[in-house]
Write a structure and sequence with these properties.
Length: 267
Amino acid sequence: MLEKVKYIIAVASGKGGVGKSTTAVNIALALQSLGKSVGLLDADIYGPSIAMMLGVPENQRPEVINEKFFKPVMAHGLATISMAYLTTDKTPMLWRGPMAAGALQQLLQQTDWGELDVLVVDMPPGTGDIQLTLAQKVQISGAVIVTTPQDIALLDAKKGIEMFVKVNIPILGIVENMATHICSSCGAEESIFGDGGGETVADQYKTQLLGSLPLDRAIREQGDAGKPISISQIKPEITSHYEQIAERLMAELEQSEAESSPQIVFE
């Protein structure tokens, strides 16, 4: 039930381990801080993680409406759905691609999302069946690509961008994760994974660098504790990074909508 969802954003990466889910969760909460009604879909069928990041208990199950639709699980004000709500953390999803793609379609279409300004979709890493299913079955407003600055991650990020380009989904921008590390002892800032990679890829594909985020222990600790950094206020400067990303995202979505709207001309 996506009829009342205004924008759908896919948060994706070409490879795992770049902090995509952490970015998706914090972007969703940052959008909410702007006064938007926000949903979050965990599309990583094999390795769902948003339940833990949002502090949802392991035994939490979504309410079923009229034996047809799931009611989203509310977490920190977000309407969420995840395969983690239907299994346990000890249940491996031993499914082939079409089965996983079918499960995603069910989560998308059989969840009563209600009225949302934005639905953020935390995609699985890579460019496989689930990504193609989403592109073919849902009107995606745009994609956000998460990467780290090192060359191997940027190479995979380009593959992710090319996939969305091939299915005519606009790239809203790049988020460069783990861009710098600030020494807790001396305060020195170091680009341990390289420098400027996200901006280079953004320029190459004529999109924008939405933001660069530091490699910070607090981001991991808050995610593990179920209290994401963007709402914890432990590191206001990091919260501000996510808020700026959310503002740029909304500006890009609204501009794209205005450009695609028919123009009425009086002569």
